[in-house]
Design goal:
The protein is α/β, with parallel strands linked by helices. The protein has a single domain, classed as Rossmann fold, CATH 3.40.50.300. It is about 35% helix and about 30% strand. The chain is built from seven helices and ten strands. β7, α6 and β8 form a beta-alpha-beta unit.
Length: about 230
């Protein structure tokens, strides 16, 4: 078991109606190497759930265990190290630094690594993934010189450079056209299969979600398994 989300709840203050519950006693268990998709309408809490799993946000109640360790109460320094090593993030927008080349962007997560062996492995991994997905020739170009699909593929490589166990993707194809959406989806699930990285995907695209091993609907603050 790589991830165990136990009875988490999360509310946000609302000026109109007081606290608004977004997640309510939600639980989720994910095995290592699985692919899981989470669907639901806008405002249902999908991104909030992903942020809590990725330790970018904290639940009001409940806890998140990663490989058996409770990360809910890690210190800020522990969380930063944990995220950099164990979790890769892919968002709807690629968030590449415009002043940096593609290769520099991809290798950004390797900068904080102190262990020279791990750093060398991560750099090599990032370079090999760029070659594997067909954008090695563009490595010295900057994001403004590349297509949206190329930038988003680079963002996936950046998320995987340090060899994380868990990849969290929040509407990763939302800003792409149909062709590039298909290419990116193929890349995510191929890496899930061949690299063994566990994939949790939030999407509005039911066709994309259907490719995952399990699909859940986030409804009324809880997850409902879809057939």
């Amino acid at each position: 078991m790589i991830l165990n989300v136990e009875n988490i709840s999360k509310s946000y203050a609302s000026h109109r109606s007081g606290d608004r519950a977004v997640l309510s006693g939600l639980s989720l268990q994910v095995e290592e190497g699985e692919s899981v998709a989470i669907v639901g309408p806008s405002g249902s809490g999908k991104t909030t759930l992903l942020n809590i799993i990725g330790t970018l946000d904290h639940p009001d109640e409940g806890r998140v265990l990663f490989k058996g360790k409770d990360v809910t109460h890690f210190s800020s320094r522990q969380l930063a190290a944990f995220r950099n090593r164990e979790i890769g993030f892919v968002f709807q927008q690629h968030h590449l630094f415009p002043q940096c080349t593609l290769l520099e962007n991809v290798l950004m997560p390797t900068i904080p690594l102190k262990d020279s062996r791990l750093k060398a492995e991560s750099i090599h991994r990032g370079q090999e993934l760029l070659k594997r997905i067909g954008i090695w020739e563009q490595r010295h170009q900057k994001p403004g010189e590349l297509s949206g699909g190329e930038c988003q593929r680079a963002a996936v490589v950046r998320a995987l450079a340090n060899g994380p166990g868990l990849l969290l993707a929040d509407e990763p194809t939302g800003a792409l056209d149909q062709k590039n959406s298909g290419l990116l989806a193929e890349l995510l699930f191929e890496l899930n299969r061949t690299e063994g990285v566990t994939l949790i995907l939030v999407t509005h695209d039911l066709r994309l979600a259907a490719r995952a091993g399990r699909v859940f609907l986030l409804e009324n603050g809880r997850l409902v398994r879809r057939p």
